[in-house]
Amino acid sequence: MSEPVAGGLATETEILATAEAWRKAGRGVALATVTETWGSAPRPVGSHLVIDGEGNFLGSVSGGCVEGAVVTEAIDVIASGVPKRLEFGVADETAWRVGLSCGGRIAVHVVPVN
């Protein structure tokens, strides 16, 4: 399997295969999944983003608007081993700063991959 480029839309199979390959290569890995959406959300429930401890990632949980914040939180999840639930929405100052201005809200669950 060739090394995926950072970011970008990929199939669920590619994302999960990448998580497995990165783990087998000894990398710390986290998987972020959209668990809830409200209003005009950029990606549907079940969308995935795989992240390694260096900040490399594949997939999308928001069409690009909050990926940076999710990657940062995922690196913390990899280091601590403790899952996190994140929420982003138009009322959230962080969402505006990172670009979730579509009018919706999303919840993302980030878990370490062991």
The geometry reads as globular
**Could you say which structural class the secondary elements and strand pairing correspond to?**
alpha+beta
Outline the biggest β-sheet: 5 strands, antiparallel
Mean pLDDT: 84
Element order: H for helix, E for strand: HEEEHEHE
Low-confidence stretches: 1-7
Oligomer: single chain
The largest beta-sheet arranges its strands as 3-2-1-5-4
Short structural summary:
Helix content is 29%, strand content 29%.
What are the key terms here?
114 residues, alpha+beta, 5-stranded antiparallel sheet, 29% helix, disordered N terminus
Task: Describe this protein's structure.
- The chain has 114 residues and is α+β, with helices and mostly antiparallel strands.
- It has one domain (12-113).
- The protein has helices at 12-24, 67-80, 93-98, and strands spanning 29-38, 48-52, 57-59, 84-89, 105-113.
- It has a 5-stranded antiparallel beta sheet.
- β2 and β3 form a beta hairpin.
- The two termini are 20 Å apart.
List the helices and strands and how they pair.
Blueprint: H1 12-24, E1 29-38, E2 48-52, E3 57-59, H2 67-80, E4 84-89, H3 93-98, E5 105-113
Antiparallel strand pairs: 1-2, 1-5, 2-3, 4-5
